[in-house]
Design brief:
The complex is a heterodimer of chains A (about 350) and B (about 425). Chain A has about 350 residues and is mainly α. Chain A has a single domain (about 50-350), classed as ABC transporter involved in vitamin B12 uptake, BtuC. Chain A has helices at about 15-20, 25-40, 40-45, 50-75, 80-95, 105-125, 130-150, 150-155, 175-200, 200-210, 215-220, 225-250, 260-270, 275-300, 305-310, 315-335, 340-350, and strands at about 160, 165-170, 170-175, 250. In chain A, the strands form two sheets. Chain A has a two-stranded antiparallel sheet with strand order 1-4. A two-stranded antiparallel ribbon of chain A has the order 2-3. In chain A, helix 13 (about 260-270) packs across helix 14 (about 275-300). Chain B has about 425 residues and is of the alpha/beta class. Chain B folds into two domains: about 5-150 and about 300-350, Rossmann fold (3-Layer(aba) Sandwich), CATH 3.40.50.2300; about 150-285 and about 380-420, Rossmann fold (3-Layer(aba) Sandwich), CATH 3.40.50.2300. Chain B has 14 helices and 13 strands. Chain B has a five-stranded parallel sheet, with helices on both faces. In chain B, strands 6, 7, 8, 9 and 10 form a five-stranded parallel sheet that branches. The chains are: A mainly alpha (about 350), B alpha/beta (about 425). The interface of A and B includes residues 249, 250, 254, 256 and 321 of A.
């Protein structure tokens, strides 16, 4: 396994199955189950505002997991991820509204279609490396965005696309309290799928492509196939995230899929820690909560004594933006390996106290 | 902190809560863009709405309680607008003064579900169909806005343009071109504009695109020149329109520019200088800040709340925002007398009168009528022309005073309330 394990020295495994287990310790397994169980009770306790934050974290995390497959595990950078997120949203909206496909099926179907489009963009990109690849994904971003603006049969053009609410066995799951469960189920499934991918043969091939593509090619790993595959997989998860976003808002508009969002996804993956599923989740939580915390801080400042003293007034909004950027930069300076690494260090500290290693 | 101190503090807090509860507070949300992409027009509009509500509170508020307005600068970022909206739903606001096309479109579904009237700064025609009867737009029962929609404003301008072409005695067909970003807000009236242009006998040229950000649009101006366009609609906000006007002046393009309500104002005229001379654009109100009308007295009182010296010149957006906020206030007054100030009652409050002008704003706000099936509040398009003479470096106040920048009324077009024009 690529992750550092906290198993004590002398620990050994005698079967391959034992080596590729997802939770090396029982505590980790129970903790994960406990977290999911606690989240099931969240709609009973939390307010609509916090539920909407959690739902937002949910669908963005799924899309970020896809980007993590591409950036963290295969080592390819993409700044076109928001376009695939948007494609998933529009496709699911189109399928559910115009073709009357039940939403339960339109979400995975939209993800598959987005994966297909991702494969198409992945083919030329698979031969490029580094900065050239970045520009190719930038092209994907703008091509898809322009397509959304022009294809009125698909996106509705001026009138935003309508997405039907999620319906299952006759129950309509709409509103934050109910839709939360839909997003939770998809998030748990996606996390399990991605973690499982990484311990499978294809997952190991992707990591090999990232670590040393020349050796991987010599070993017999088809570089083009796996690079294109990672594009397709990233687009698949972006499609699921986008479809969930569409059925939450019930209205999909062009405005939410600009390059700003692509960079936001990249920030989530990088701040969380490249190549770590847990890290991606933490990175998403960080990036969603950061503007909210800054908004809360600026609301506290507004009208207060510091505001009067420095005559800030409207400038508080600009300071908030500066603060968000500063936090991200400081974070990358002091914690370049991301939140996942910091979490591992914290766990190690408690595990090994009073020793330092 | 000693025990007694703590007890005193909690007692004080409890008394405070009891006091506010007794007054049956009315809360409204206010989304403003003071720092984002549309801040150049968002600042005066937000200021106008905030001042109007402050003035309402000064005179006792609604339902004998102050209106608690929560102004949030969301920087034109939709996710922030959505999470702010969720917070407000939890606080049970009676209505929301929204802003841009982005957040309005994202929230149409939610406000209809949660039954909270959303009065937007977006005038997209897709928001004018509460029951979906037009089959052109999704039902938006809780969306309102004050002023002609972008589509109706463009229809009005093209009606004037056809008359203008005939009165100038020019031979043949006039050429019309739609210019704007490939984006929901500029594209909103494109179909409607091109349809009515064809009806009126214009030759409709392929649309020209230019981004919502300021930039170098010489290429677009040369396209305009080569195609021989006579009337060009500028669909973007003031910032990028200024770039186009300046570039076209340099390129020597002879075209009558038609603006949208957000595309031109006094500040934009100052920035563009004599490139803005002659631009025709619609006004949501019957007058500008420098005109006289009975309602101007109320307007000046409201302006004093954020400008005690009464020196500031208020752009057209400020006046429109004051009208918008005062319509909401009167709808809430009606709701207070008819079952309490909550979302569904405020919605009904908007249907209270025909040809409605808020008290104290006679001659300023255009008479508006909202009905259960038609949220097109007005089909009167007041067209004004910008006249710029000379340099525009001086402060706006001085330029208006010495007549360097003038907004002169061209005409007022009364569009027929056609059922087939609703929703697009």
């Amino acid at each position: 396994m690529a992750m550092q394990s906290l198993l004590p020295a002398g620990d050994f495994r005698t079967t391959y199955a034992a080596d590729t287990v997802i939770f090396p310790t029982a505590a980790g397994r129970y903790a994960a189950i406990a977290v999911v169980a606690l989240l099931c009770f969240a709609p009973l306790v939390l307010s609509q505002y916090w539920l909407s934050i959690l739902i937002q974290i949910g669908y963005l995390a799924i899309a970020a997991l896809g980007l993590n497959i591409m950036v963290g595990f295969t080592g390819q950078i993409s700044i076109g991820h928001a376009a695939f997120f948007g494609l998933g949203a529009f496709t699911s909206a189109y399928l559910s509204a115009k073709l009357s496909v039940p939403v339960f099926f339109s979400i995975p179907l939209a993800a598959l279609i987005t994966a297909g489009v991702g494969l198409v963009f992945g083919l030329p990109a698979a031969r490029l490396k580094g900065l050239y690849l970045v520009i190719a994904t930038l092209a994907a971003q703008y091509i898809l965005l322009d397509f959304f603006s022009r294809a009125e049969w698909f996106t509705g053009g001026v009138v935003p696309a309508i997405a039907q609410p999620f319906r299952i066995f006759g129950f309509t799951l709409r509103g934050d309290h109910r839709y939360f469960y839909v997003v939770l189920v998809y998030l748990v499934l996606s996390t399990i799928l991605v973690t499982n991918l990484m311990r499978s043969r294809d997952g190991r091939a992707l990591v090999a492509v990232r670590d040393h593509y020349l050796s991987a090619e010599i070993m017999g790993i088809n570089l083009t196939k796996y690079r294109t595959l990672s594009f397709g997989l990233a687009a698949f998860y972006a499609g699921i995230g986008g479809a969930l976003y569409a059925h939450y808002q019930e209205v999909v508009s062009n405005e939410g899929f600009t390059i700003d969002r692509s960079i936001l996804f990249l920030a989530m993956v990088i701040i969380g820690g490249l190549g770590s599923v847990m890290g991606t989740l933490m990175g998403t939580i960080f990036m969603v909560l950061l503007p909210e915390v800054m908004e809360w801080v600026s609301a506290l400042l507004r009208g207060g004594s510091i505001d009067q003293a420095l005559a800030l007034r409207n400038n508080i909004a600009f300071l908030r933006e500066i603060a968000i950027g500063l936090v991200i930069v400081l974070f990358l300076v002091f914690e370049p390996d991301g939140l996942a690494h910091r979490w591992r260090r914290i766990k190690a500290y408690w595990k090994l106290y009073p020793f330092s290693y | 902190m000693t025990r007694t101190h703590m007890l005193l503090r909690s007692a004080a807090v409890a008394v405070l809560f009891a006091a506010t509860a007794a007054n049956a507070q009315v809360s409204i949300g206010h989304l403003a863009d003071y720092s984002g992409a549309t801040a150049d027009v968002g600042v005066p509009f937000g200021q106008g709405a905030a001042d109007a509500i402050a003035w309402v509170n000064q005179r006792g508020g609604v339902n004998k309680a102050k209106v608690n307005i929560d102004t949030v600068d969301y920087g034109y970022q939709v996710p922030r607008a959505v999470s702010q909206y969720k917070k407000w739903v939890g606080e049970k606001v009676a209505a929301i003064l929204g802003w841009g096309t982005a957040d309005t479109e994202a929230l149409t579904g939610f406000v209809a579900q949660d039954q909270i009237p959303y009065i937007s700064g977006s005038y997209a025609a897709a928001l004018t169909d509460p029951t979906g009867q037009s089959n052109r737009a999704k039902p938006a029962p809780y969306n309102f806005f004050y002023g002609p929609s972008y589509s109706d404003a463009l229809r009005g301008m093209l009606t004037w343009a056809a008359q203008d072409w005939k009165s100038k005695g020019k031979p043949g067909q006039a050429k019309f071109v739609h210019m704007g970003a490939n984006h929901p807000y500029p594209n909103a009236p494109k179909e409607a504009g091109e349809a009515i242009a064809k009806e009126l006998g214009f030759e409709v040229l392929p649309p020209v695109q230019f981004a919502l950000t300021p930039g170098d649009y010489t290429a677009q101006c040369l396209t305009l020149k080569n195609s021989g366009a006579n009337y060009a609609y500028l669909g973007n906000t003031a910032g990028s329109n200024i770039s186009v006007l300046k570039a076209c002046k340099t390129a020597g393009v002879d075209v009558q520019f038609l603006g949208n309500v957000w595309g031109m104002d006094e500040n934009a005229a100052k920035a563009a200088g004599d490139a803005a001379n002659g631009v025709v654009f619609p006004l949501r109100t019957a007058v500008t800040w420098s005109d006289e009308a009975p309602g101007m007295k109320t307007l000046r009182e409201i302006s004093k709340l954020s400008d005690p010296s009464n020196a500031a010149y208020r752009p057209v957006h400020y006046v429109a925002a004051v009208c918008t906020a005062l319509y909401l206030k009167e709808a809430m007054d009606w709701a207070a007398k008819n079952g309490g100030v909550n979302g569904p009652n405020v919605k009904k409050g908007f249907y209270q009168k025909k040809d409605w002008v808020p008290a104290g704003m006679e001659g300023v706000c255009v008479p508006s009528t909202w009905t259960e099936t038609d949220h097109r509040s007005t089909l009167t398009v007041n067209l004004y022309r910008i006249k710029v003479a000379g340099a525009t470096e001086a402060p706006l106040n001085d330029l208006i005073k010495n007549g360097s920048i003038k907004l002169e009324k061209v005409t007022s077009i009364e569009l027929p309330r056609k059922a087939e024009w609703q929703g697009w």
